[in-house]
Amino acid sequence: MNDIELIKLAIKAKENAYVPYSKFKVGAALITEDGSVYTGCNIENASYSPTICAERTAIAKAISEGHRKIIKIAIVGDSKYTYPCGVCRQVIREFGKDSQVIIANSEEDFKKYNLAELLPNSFGPEDLIKEVKDDV
Ligand code: THU
């Protein structure tokens, strides 16, 4: 699956966005370590805060099917370049410390980042492994 194919899937997933409140559609498509592909869209809620972003919908689908590593995720939204929100950056971090993030305006016009560029000095699972510190 190349970048253009992945972007096409994100564009397609965006069509299913449920956005009666913001009217702002987002689609995402990701590739896992073994090459599996999952897509997602944003799903809003009348109570607002239960809203889930497109990226986290796709990630939840992948993780619930047993995957644990994300290699790449493409995101397409209603703004020219829709960057992942802070919460989604942290959730991508959990399963894709070294992942690539594609922010696409279209299948011909996109930008590519390493997750670490979008979330520098991040906190992740490794930080919870306690080490004995010399000076305490
Ligand atoms: N949204 C996403 O789906 N992904 C992001 O990273 C940014 C925001 C959605 C959430 C909400 O449904 C709409 O865009 C407006 O914030």
Automatic annotation (TrEMBL):
SUPFAM superfamilies, sorted: Cytidine deaminase-like
One Pfam family named in its UniProt record: dCMP_cyt_deam_1
Gene3D superfamilies, alphabetized: Cytidine Deaminase, domain 2
Binding-site residues, substrate: 42-48
Entry cofactors: Zn(2+)
MF-aspect GO terms: cytidine deaminase activity; identical protein binding; zinc ion binding
GO cellular component, one term: cytosol
Keywords (A to Z) from UniProt: Hydrolase, Metal-binding, Zinc
Keyword Zinc part of the UniProt annotation: yes
Reaction equation(s) it catalyzes: 2'-deoxycytidine + H2O + H(+) = 2'-deoxyuridine + NH4(+); cytidine + H2O + H(+) = uridine + NH4(+)
Amino acids binding Zn(2+): 53, 85, 88
E.C. numbers: 3.5.4.5
Superkingdom of the organism of origin: Bacteria
Active site: 55 (proton donor)
One GO biological process term: nucleobase-containing small molecule metabolic process
Span of domain CMP/dCMP-type deaminase: 1-126
Function, as annotated: This enzyme scavenges exogenous and endogenous cytidine and 2'-deoxycytidine for UMP synthesis.
Protein family according to the UniProt entry: Belongs to the cytidine and deoxycytidylate deaminase family.
Name of this chain's protein: Cytidine deaminase
Natural source organism: Soehngenia longivitae
Taxonomic placement: Bacteria, Bacillati, Bacillota, Tissierellia, Tissierellales
